[in-house]
Design brief:
Oligomer: heterodimer
CATH architecture of the largest domain in chain A: Orthogonal Bundle
Radius of gyration of chain A: 26 Å
Strand content of chain A: under 5%
CATH architecture of the largest domain in chain B: 3-Layer(aba) Sandwich
Radius of gyration of chain B: 24 Å
Number of strands of chain B: 13
Shape of chain B: globular
CATH topology of the largest domain in chain B: D-Maltodextrin-Binding Protein, domain 2
CATH superfamily of the largest domain in chain B: Periplasmic binding protein-like II
Largest interface: A-B, 70 and 64 residues
Shape of chain A: flat
Distance between the termini of chain B: 57 Å
CATH superfamily of the largest domain in chain A: MetI-like
Structural class of chain B: alpha/beta
Largest sheet of chain B: 5 strands, mixed
CATH class of the largest domain in chain B: Alpha Beta
CATH topology of the largest domain in chain A: MetI-like fold
Largest sheet of chain A: 2 strands, antiparallel
Number of helices of chain B: 17
Number of domains of chain A: 2
Number of strands of chain A: 2
Number of domains of chain B: 2
Helix content of chain B: 40-55%
Strand content of chain B: 5-15%
Number of helices of chain A: 13
Chain lengths: ~300, ~450
């Protein structure tokens, strides 16, 4: 019978050290991990559970298991598809506008001029205004009867525009308010990224006789690609859950013109008390958001590798 | 910058979104029923006072806490009352969540007109005529209530509450603008045909600068759950109904389509941008003397016609009456705040004592005269009010109660009432904005509501 090979004391000691290290790391991490599971995983799994049940209002907990019924009801509801379409239109208009404006303003702010610091500080104001307040104030400014907006465009012979009553203009209003609110965020990140660009590369390009456009196109933009991609994804995740501005400015109207998906989910849950249907919608939107985010992440990685 | 840390950050961000999207189920808590105190919990003593809590709309909760509770304590000194004001959009969900929990906080839930069936179906409310009979004062006169406001807290043959603050959709008129247009001030006999014939003349230039500065009407036109109440008032006044006896949609008829078209046609005589006008905007326009009429909840009368801090109008230039008469009845719509007792309350006797006092003949009279709340009792409406401005209001209220009772002018009596209202808000707004015709919008609404199994 072969006797077990005695392990080297040093190897055992290394194992003990590794295990102790691992235990120490998990010891520190476990409170945060438990908190994360409680605050992220539990609500998600609970939402999924509700989406497959009939919510019993007398106990406010999931009741009878109904399988895919809630999902089938949601997918048959034209209001759900309309809300997704409206959200798509809003995202397609707002995100590119905010990215272009944000980086454009960052280039301007980055140039040397007096009062640059004050302008930077002023840019932060829209970000700290509560969205409900922002929506309400814009609603007042855009009212055709009392608002400032029509009075101003009237001075140059334009308008009057029914900003909130015309379906197309109502969507434009939401995009304008959201852009007013979030462009400074993009500008802030873009400004930081521009300041962090390596100066020696630009000096070398200047020695080689590169003009402004060449430097921008062949140096600045490629170096900014990772930041642009990351900013886009962060904004995408923020914009996809927008509903407060629509709630305050148009309440989803006129008709269904600005009824974005999260406003529709909110209305179904807390006004119509259709919690199970709202949970099914939330799960569909969550899955869709995750898939699209994965596509964007892959796209941003490809862009980074290309540059 | 490497891929890994950025991805981690983004995943975390994605997690935050996920949590936000799925936040609603966090509200669901496991519930076990709490045994109700069989004795009713008593009315307290000096040594051991009873404490009850009420959840109510923030619009009047503070006023009640400051003025009503001290008055109540003159009769019931050993019942301490704490009132929590909650914004309207959150009130139903919070009330449901609390009353269905294991240990509810609130003994009294002040519920809006359409909410009683939802709360009752969830088993949250006490049947006052049966469960609270032993604690009901012998002189509490149920018969004295007007039928329409009392019915707001009844469901399936049970009485779950009493009317505390009554409200009806009424027609406000600016007599000055009628005079400037050379039209007689309207009376409750005004018909829809007459009203619509007068409307073009009420769109006028009052200061002679060549620009229109006054319009005939402003009211709810925006996408709002209360906007369909205007259409429904027109529908009901012409003999139509929202639902039939089996709770199936009954509005998708020529009468329904004509009523919605009338509501849409009002936009021709409304201020610019009125498509997005609702409660606040129509009030502002009327109080600034820009509109000759307004279909609005009667409770705003004092701030619209009397209080100089909130209006440019004087009491004698503002009229109030039922909405125009259709082929059957005058138009109106009911909106009652009901006092209900939570079934799991540990002190239902004290809670019911407060509601009885406030809705009694004596309490309602005090409430109406001191706080200006609109009464539901016939006896209170027949008593000359202390404030002169209330005289025309009481007359309009009585007309509205009678019309509402005769024409069942209220929102659906169903636990899914708010869901029905949401669909109606969606579809009427589509018609209002021109996205759909009145007929198509109502056909779509009827199809959706028909699937709801009310």
């Amino acid at each position: 019978m072969a006797s077990p090979t005695p392990r080297h004391p040093k190897a055992r000691s290394r194992r003990v050290v590794r295990l102790t290290d691992l235990a120490g790391r998990w010891g520190f991490m476990s409170p945060a991990a438990v908190l994360l599971v409680a605050t992220l995983a539990y609500p998600i799994f609970y939402t999924i559970r509700i989406s497959f049940s009939e919510l019993d209002l007398s106990t406010f907990s999931p009741g009878e298991w109904v399988g895919w019924d809630n999902y089938i009801d949601v997918l048959r509801d034209d209001r759900f598809w309309n809300a997704l379409r409206v959200t798509g239109v809003y995202l397609a208009l707002a995100l590119p506008l905010q990215m272009v404006l944000g980086f454009g303003i960052a280039f301007l702010v980055n140039a040397e001029w007096r009062g640059r610091g004050a302008v930077r500080a002023l840019f932060l104001i829209p970000m700290v205004v509560a969205p409900i307040v922002a929506g309400g104030v814009w609603r007042m400014m855009l009212d055709p009867l009392w608002g400032l907006a029509n009075a101003l465009i009237g001075l140059v012979g334009l308008g009057p525009i029914d900003w909130l009553g015309d379906p197309a203009w109502a969507m434009a209003t939401i995009v304008i308010v959201d852009t007013w609110r979030w462009t400074p965020f993009v500008t802030l990140i873009a400004t930081a990224a521009l300041l962090a660009l390596p100066g020696d590369v630009f000096e070398a390009a200047e020695i080689d006789g590169a003009n402004w456009w060449t430097k921008f196109w062949f140096i600045t933009l490629p170096l900014l690609v990772p930041v642009i991609a990351a900013t886009f994804i962060v904004r995408w995740l923020g914009a996809v859950k927008m509903f407060d501005i629509a709630l305050a400015a148009t309440n989803g109207g006129p008709g269904r013109a600005t009824n974005v998906i999260n406003l529709f989910i909110y209305e179904e849950a807390f006004r119509s008390l259709n919690f199970a249907g709202a949970a099914a919608m939330a799960v569909i939107v969550l899955v869709g958001t995750m898939l699209l985010t994965a596509v964007f992440l892959r796209g941003s990685r490809m862009l980074e590798e290309r540059h | 910058m490497t891929h890994e840390p950025r991805n981690r950050r983004l995943l975390s961000r994605r997690g935050v979104v996920a949590a936000g999207l799925s936040a609603l189920p966090v509200l669901a808590l496991p519930a076990t029923p709490r045994a109700q105190t069989a004795s009713g919990g008593g009315l307290g003593t000096a040594a051991a006072p009873v404490e009850i809590r009420m959840i109510a709309n923030e619009a009047f909760a503070n006023q009640w806490q400051a003025n009503m509770v001290p008055e109540f304590n003159k009769s019931f000194p050993h019942v301490r009352v704490k009132i929590d004001g909650v914004p309207y959009p959150e009130l139903l969900a919070k009330s449901l969540l609390d009353s269905t929990g294991a240990n509810p906080t609130y003994d009294i839930i002040v519920a809006d007109d359409p909410w009683v069936p939802q709360l009752a179906q969830a088993g949250a409310l006490l049947d006052l005529k049966a469960d609270a009979k032993a604690w009901t004062a012998p002189d509490f006169d149920w018969e004295d209530f007007n039928a329409a406001p009392l019915a707001a807290s009844a469901w399936r043959g049970k009485q779950y509450g009493v009317p505390l603050r009554s409200n009806m959709l009424l027609m406000f008129t600016n007599k000055t603008l009628y005079k400037k247009a050379g039209l007689p001030a309207p009376t409750p006999k005004l018909t829809w045909t007459e009203y619509l014939a007068q409307a073009p003349k009420l769109v006028q230039d009052t200061n002679g600068d060549g620009k229109v500065d006054a319009w005939a009407i402003d009211t709810y036109f925006t996408r709002d759950s209360l906007t369909p109440t205007i259409w429904q008032a027109i529908l009901n006044s012409n003999g139509g109904a929202l639902l039939d006896k089996d709770n199936k949609p009954a509005f998708n008829t020529p009468t329904g389509v004509a009523a919605l078209q009338t509501h849409i046609d009002l936009l021709k005589y409304a201020p610019p941008g009125a498509k997005s006008h609702g409660f606040n905007e129509s009030l502002q326009a009327f109080r600034q003397g820009q509109t000759a009429t307004m279909f609005m909840w009667g409770s705003v009368f004092k701030a619209t016609a009397v209080d100089p801090k909130t209006t440019t109008l004087k009491p004698d230039e503002v009229g109030i009456q039922v909405m125009p008469v259709g082929s059957k009845l005058p138009g109106t719509h009911r909106g009652i705040w009901n006092g209900t007792v939570a079934k799991k309350s540990a002190h239902p006797q004290a809670a019911w004592a407060l509601l009885q006092w406030l809705s009694s003949k004596q309490g309602e009279l005090w409430h109406a005269n001191v706080l200006g709340a609109f009464p539901a009792r016939k006896s209170t409406l027949a008593t000359p009010p202390e404030s002169a401005w209330l005289v025309p209001v009481y007359a309009a209220l009585q007309q509205a109660y009678d019309a509402a009772d005769a024409g069942q002018m209220w929102r659906p009596r169903s636990p899914k009432s708010d869901a029905v209202q949401q669909v109606l808000a969606d579809e009427t707004s589509r018609a209002m904005s021109g996205e759909a015709s009145a007929a198509d919008a109502l056909a779509s609404a009827a199809q959706k509501i028909g699937r709801m199994r009310l």
